[in-house]
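Please check this:
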Amino acid sequence: MCEFAAELGIKPGVSVNKEEYVQNCATLAPKEVAKVRSGEGSVKHKLNNAVFDVIDTNHDGTVSKEEYRAFANATGVWDPNYVDVVFDLIDTNKNGKLERKEFSDYEYKLFFTLEDVAGKGQVEGSIKSTKT
C-alpha cells in the first residue's frame, strides 16, 4: 500500500489536492500498463493481492460472495444494492467464487485502463442495467 501511495505522490504528512492526485494517476497509469505488458508485476497488482488476502477471511485462496459482501459493506466500496452484481462481473469463470487473478485483473482494469470491464458502457451504468 505504501509503495502504491508513493507512486501516486501521497506521502505521510503531506497533503495532495484532487488535481494533483488525478495528475499523479494519469502519470502512473501508462507506467503501470507498460509494466504489465512487459511481464513485470505492477504496483497496483501488488496492492490488489494484499487486499485479496484481507478479504479472504477463511484463507482458502478464494473469495466467496459472503466474504466480498462483508468487505464491500465494511468499506462502502460498492452500493449494497449492487454488491452481488459486481461480484458476478468479477467472477469471469462463473464458479461462484473470486480467484486472485480475477479480482486483481478486474481492479487493475477498473483503475488504470479505462476499459469497459463490464462490456456495457460505464461500470456504474452496467451495474444498474444488469440489475433490472
